[in-house]
Specification:
The complex is a heterodimer of chains A (192) and B (240). Chain A has 192 residues and is mostly helical. In chain A, 57% of the residues lie in helices and 5% in strands. In chain A, helix 2 crosses helix 3 and helix 5 runs antiparallel to helix 6. Chain A is elongated, with a radius of gyration of 26 Å. Chain B has 7 helices and 10 strands. In chain B, strand 1 and strand 2 form a beta hairpin. The chains are: A mainly alpha (192), B alpha/beta (240).
C-alpha cells in the first residue's frame, strides 16, 4: 500500500489536516489498514519536501497545519494510478518452494502437506468473509479491500488444487534415501 | 438437538470389479443455526453426501439422523413428508418448474404437504418478500435472471418450517456479485435457526461457512478450526 499516494488522493479533494487524513484513510480502506498518526506526518513532510503538497497553515507543529496538493502532486497521483505494480518478475513464493522441497524429501505425504496449507488459507478466507458479512453491505471500501484479499487467497488455493491433481496424475519418482554414511572413527583432539 | 447427523456413513455403487466407494465411514454433525461447507474436488463424494443427508438416496451402511430422527426407521411416506416439511434443497441449476410462476414454485412443497392454496401462497409470498422478490412473484422462471431464479430456489428451500437447508454448488452458475448475494441469503437463513450444508469446490463460497469440512476420495480428511475473531487478521504476520 503506498501511503504517500493514498494521502495525495485524499488531498485531491481539498486541503486537510493530518488527523483528518488518518481518519479518512482508515475509513476509505475499510479500516483494514490501520495507520498511525506519526506515519501520516512523516509522509506529509516528505511530500512537502518533494513539492507534491504544500502547507497553508501557520505554526511549526504539523498538527496545526493544513496540507493541500500541488499541481506536481496531482501529476504524480495521475501517473501512479496508471502505473501497473510490478507483477512481471516471478515472486520467490515460500509456499511454492515448500511444495517443491516436499516432493524431494523421502517419506513426506505431499497431499497432506498441501492440505495443511489449504486449510490455513480457507480459515483466513473465513475470517475475511466474516468481516465482510458483519460490515455494512454499502461500505464499498471495505468490500473492495476484503474482496482483493479473498481473490488473492483463492488463487493460492486453486494453485494447491491444481498442484495436487498434477501430482496425482504424474507422481514424482520416489526419492531414494542415500546409503548411510560409514561410521567415522572417533578421534581425539581438534585438527587445525 | 443436532439438525443433521451422519454416523459412519458409507455408500457403495455397483459390485465386484465395478464397485465404487463413493463415501467411506463419513461422520458429520450440523447444529441448528450453523452453516457447514463440504469442500472437495469433483468425484470426492460431496454431492452423494448431500443426497444421502437429504434422504434422496440411502446409505449402504451407517446412520443418518435429521432433527434427531433416524432415517433408517422411516417408511417411504415418512421420508417424503420429512423432505417436504423439514428439508430444503438448492441446486446449481435451480430446478424450478418452468410452467409455474415464482410464487407457485415456492408454494408447491407446502401444497404437496396438504396446506390450502391460500395458506401456501401466503407463506410463499412472505418467503419471496424476505428475499426482495415479492415484485417478481408472478414471473415465470424464464422471465427471471440467474440471480433471481436462485433467490426463488432459496425461497422454496426455506419456506414454511424447514430446519435444514442443503445446497449443491448454489452459486455455480452465477457471477461473483450474485454468488455473494446467494451466500448472504443462506447465512441469513442460518441466523434464523436453519442448519445449512453447502457442498462446493469453490473456496470463496466455502468461506461463508462457520466450519469447512474437506472431503477426498469419499473420506473426511480434515476440517477448519473454530473461527478466530477478525482482530487476528491484523496481528503481525498476517499483514502484507
Amino acid at each position: 500500500m503506498s501511503v504517500p499516494h493514498a494521502l495525495l488522493a485524499l488531498l485531491s479533494e481539498g486541503p486537510k489536516y493530518g488527523l483528518q487524513l488518518r481518519e479518512e484513510f482508515e475509513e476509505r480502506t475499510g479500516e483494514v489498514w490501520p495507520l498511525n498518526v506519526g506515519q501520516v506526518y512523516t509522509t506529509l513532510q516528505r511530500l512537502e519536501r518533494d513539492g507534491l503538497v504544500e502547507a497553508n497553515g501557520t505554526g511549526d507543529e504539523s498538527q496545526h497545519r493544513r496540507f493541500g496538493i500541488t499541481s506536481a502532486g496531482e501529476a504524480e497521483l495521475a501517473d501512479w494510478l496508471r502505473t501497473p505494480p510490478d507483477l512481471a518478475s516471478p515472486p520467490r513464493d515460500e509456499l511454492v518452494i515448500k511444495v517443491l522441497v516436499a516432493l524431494r524429501v523421502p517419506g513426506v505425504d505431499v497431499p497432506e502437506v498441501l492440505q495443511v496449507h489449504r486449510r490455513y488459507l480457507v480459515e483466513l478466507m473465513q475470517q475475511w468473509t466474516r468481516i465482510k458479512d458483519d460490515g455494512d453491505e454499502g461500505d464499498l471500501g471495505l468490500a473492495l479491500a476484503v474482496d482483493a484479499e479473498l481473490f488473492r487467497l483463492d488463487s493460492v488455493i486453486r494453485w494447491l488444487d491444481s498442484a495436487e491433481s498434477r501430482i496425482r496424475r504424474h507422481p514424482a519418482p520416489p526419492v531414494k534415501r542415500a546409503a548411510p554414511l560409514p561410521k567415522l572413527r572417533r578421534t581425539t583432539g581438534v585438527r587445525r | 438437538m443436532n439438525a443433521l447427523e451422519l454416523r459412519h456413513v458409507s455408500k457403495t455403487y455397483g459390485d465386484g470389479a465395478a464397485e465404487v466407494h463413493a463415501l467411506r465411514d463419513v461422520s458429520l454433525t450440523v447444529e441448528a443455526g450453523a452453516l457447514v461447507a463440504i469442500m472437495g474436488p469433483s468425484g470426492s463424494g460431496k454431492s452423494t453426501m448431500l443426497t444421502i443427508a437429504g434422504s434422496l438416496e440411502e446409505a449402504t451402511s451407517g446412520e443418518v439422523l435429521v432433527a434427531g430422527q433416524p432415517l433408517s426407521g422411516m417408511s417411504r411416506n415418512e421420508k417424503a413428508r420429512l423432505r417436504r416439511r423439514s428439508i430444503g434443497y438448492v441446486f446449481q441449476n435451480f430446478n424450478l418448474l418452468a410452467g409455474l410462476t415464482a410464487a407457485e414454485n415456492v408454494a408447491l412443497p407446502l401444497e404437496l404437504d396438504g396446506l390450502s392454496v391460500r395458506v401456501a401462497r401466503g407463506a410463499a409470498m412472505k418467503a419471496l418478500g424476505e428475499l426482495d422478490m415479492a415484485g417478481r412473484a408472478a414471473r415465470f422462471p424464464d422471465e427471471l435472471s440467474g440471480g433471481e431464479r436462485q433467490r426463488v430456489a432459496i425461497a422454496r428451500a426455506v419456506v414454511g418450517e424447514r430446519r435444514l437447508l442443503l445446497a449443491d454448488e448454489p452459486s455455480g452458475a452465477l457471477d461473483s456479485a450474485n454468488a455473494e448475494s446467494v451466500m448472504r441469503l443462506v447465512r441469513s437463513a442460518c441466523r434464523g435457526g436453519v442448519a445449512g450444508v453447502v457442498v462446493t469446490h469453490d473456496a470463496q463460497l466455502a468461506s461463508w461457512a462457520d466450519r469447512v469440512v474437506f472431503l477426498r476420495d469419499g473420506r473426511v480428511t480434515d476440517q477448519t478450526a473454530p473461527l478466530a475473531g477478525p482482530e487476528s487478521l491484523l496481528a503481525p504476520g498476517h499483514r502484507q
